[in-house]
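Chapter summary example.
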Amino acid sequence: MRRIRAATLLAGSALLVGMTVGAGPAAAKGPPSKAIIAPDWATGSFTVTRTGWVVTVKGRVQDTRADGDCVYIKASLYVDGWADPDKESPKNCSGSAGGAWMGFSFTLRPSGGIRFSAIRLEVCADDFPPDSCEGRTISVYPDRARNPQYVDEINDYMSMGIGRFLKAKGRAPGPFDWHDDGCSNSPDRPEGYNFLPACKRHDFGYRNYGHGLKASPLDSTRAYVNYRFKVDLYNECAKHSGPSGSYCRFIADGYVAAVVDFGGPSFYGN
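The structure predicted for these 270 residues follows.
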């Protein structure tokens, strides 16, 4: 199911032809989202902050009826291209009977997916099964760029021919991060196809748009880097005709699906 979703996303990648990444506001991270949810039995105050591939939820909850029920909160982070939301339901019944405010803080970090879409926050009371819950869905603001002034230069490196890119990598001009780990946990040359140059440029995009230089740490930018990865792999496959070329593209699709599904933590560095 996840592989199908990735293939569906990249089948529409022609829409990204000619796309470049725009510079975002120069701030350490996006603004927090705030919400107050107040059903009859409790009041919850929430602050939601995104840092890369991690969302932190902080706040307080109070049993407004002071009837001794355990009141607690639930959070479900929804990620496009991923089957199940990342969930947390911390319970803290200490002080419920007296209507005391109880603080909470936890993080949500999905194992895969394309981009964060929203978070569902709920205030619940552990009373009669099923528990009483009421909530709302709010947006999760993205990270903001630390060095947006370098976006245009990174765009040039990402869009130039792969041969020119490799020559630039040999010179390694600053302030960019030119390190790479090849094709990570996959072969650099599967069945003799040379995927290593494409993997090197993909690492460059992740390390400079994303973590490290953090020129454009956005889900849409990550999608662009993954698209460029597919283009580079398919250009390698174009050197092979007939069944060999088709088999090369089949393997390439697997490499692309892996970074689409599981590359979020690597792009953001957490």
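To summarize the output: The chain is about 35% helix and 25% strand.
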